[in-house]
Amino acid sequence: MSTASTRLPEGRYGRSSDERADRKLKIAGAVLGAALLILVGYFAYHYVVETKISAQVITFEATDNAVKVHLEVHKDSGTDGYCTLRSQAADGSEVGRADFRFTASDTRVDQVVTLRTTAKGTTAELLGCHTG
């Protein structure tokens, strides 16, 4: 007595539909993976290259109608730009916001700026710096 084989003869009928589907899925996955890698690389490149100004608040001193902020800015030589600062009251409401321009040709600007407020501010927050 012999047992009947359920396998098709090798090479007689071509690839099975499962093998074709697996190959298509592998190709689609490789294409999507490559596209994602290119997209992440593009955004990383522009984040690193386009960030020409960075800054930090060193200290601040609040009075009833102003906040004096010691701001340190690092930028490319010859790059003009501005940094946006804001101050909030104790209850969280915004009491002052202003842009401060930096046009010096130095790569490091260390400056104390005065942010006028409508009430006593308890914070000095750097919102961001931009070229232009």
What does this molecule look like?
InterPro entries: DUF4307 (IPR025443). This is DUF4307 domain-containing protein. It holds the Pfam family DUF4307. Keywords: Membrane, Transmembrane, Transmembrane helix. It comes from Streptomyces yokosukanensis. The chain is built from one helix and six strands. The mean pLDDT is 87. The strands form two sheets. It has a three-stranded antiparallel sheet with strand order 1-2-5, with no helix packed on it. β1 and β2 form a beta hairpin. The chain folds into two domains: 36 residues; 79 residues, Immunoglobulin-like. The radius of gyration is 30 Å and the shape is elongated. By secondary structure, the protein is α+β, with helices and mostly antiparallel strands. It is 26% helix and 40% strand. 14% of the residues are buried.
Notable traits:
1 helix; transmembrane helix; membrane; DUF4307 domain-containing protein; 3-stranded antiparallel β-sheet; elongated; transmembrane; DUF4307; alpha+beta; 6 strands; 132 residues; Immunoglobulin-like; single chain
How are the elements arranged and paired?
Blueprint lengths: L16 H34 L2 E10 L3 E10 L5 E8 L5 E9 L5 E9 L8 E7 L1
Antiparallel strand pairs: 1-2, 2-5, 3-4, 3-6
Strand order of the largest sheet: 1-2-5
CATH architecture of the largest domain: Sandwich
How can the largest sheet be summarized? 3 strands, antiparallel
H/E topology pattern? HEEEEEE
CATH class designation of the largest domain:
Mainly Beta
Give me the count of strands.
Answer: 6
Beta content: 35-45%
The CA-CA distance between the termini, in Å, is 88 Å
Coarse structural class: alpha+beta
| Rg | 30 Å
What's the domain count? Answer: 2
CATH topology of the largest domain: Immunoglobulin-like
Output the number of helix runs: 1
Tell me roughly what share of residues is in helical segments: 25-40%
The shape, in one word, is: elongated
- Rounded mean pLDDT is 87
**Model regions low in confidence, pLDDT < 50 over at least 5 residues:** none
Keywords: Membrane, Transmembrane, Transmembrane helix
Organism: Streptomyces yokosukanensis
Transmembrane segments: 25-45
Protein name: DUF4307 domain-containing protein
